[in-house]
Amino acid sequence: MSASSAVTINCSEEEIAARLPEAESPLSDDAAQVSLAPAPGHRGTEVRVVLDKGGVGAAIGQKVAAVFGTDQQRQLDDALRRFKQLLEAGEVILSEGSPEGTDAKQQRQQRPAEPVAPTTTD
């Protein structure tokens, strides 16, 4: 099974290549084939990643992995998104609602959003 993803990062190829070892797995794994190219219109660098890694190959196995949040595509997309944030913003942005980041298991257990009760000041 293979996964692939691409994103445009507003940094030079040299900066991205130098900071690639800081990326999370599977983006920093040996199985990840990363290619860098100038983005159209001089708008940063296009980063393409192909992850060729042994895993569940059957369609049913891919669906089960997706349910548990362990499928390669989700992991690669998340790692690439966090790497882009690290390079462009200097940190990985997390919200108070999910301080540990996105997790498929956690998202399934979330309750619907509810308005916060207004605080009264006496």
Question: What is this entry, summarized?
Answer:
Helix content is 33%, strand content 19%.
Keywords:
122 residues; alpha+beta; three-stranded antiparallel beta sheet; 4 helices; 3 strands; flat
Q: What does this molecule look like?
A:
This protein has four helices and three strands; from the N terminus they run βαββααα. By secondary structure, it is an alpha+beta fold. It has one domain. Strands 1-3-2 form a three-stranded antiparallel beta sheet, covered by helices on one side. β2 (32-38) and β3 form a beta hairpin. The chain is flat and about 60 Å long.
Topology at a glance:
Layout: E1 2-9, H1 13-19, E2 32-38, E3 45-52, H2 59-68, H3 72-89, H4 104-108
Antiparallel strand pairs: 1-3, 2-3
Distance between the termini: 62 Å
Compute the number of structural domains: 1
Mean pLDDT: 80
Order of helices and strands: EHEEHHH
Number of helices: 4
Task: Determine the strand fraction and express it as a percent band.
Answer: 15-25%
Main β sheet profile: 3 strands, antiparallel
Strand order of the largest sheet: 1-3-2
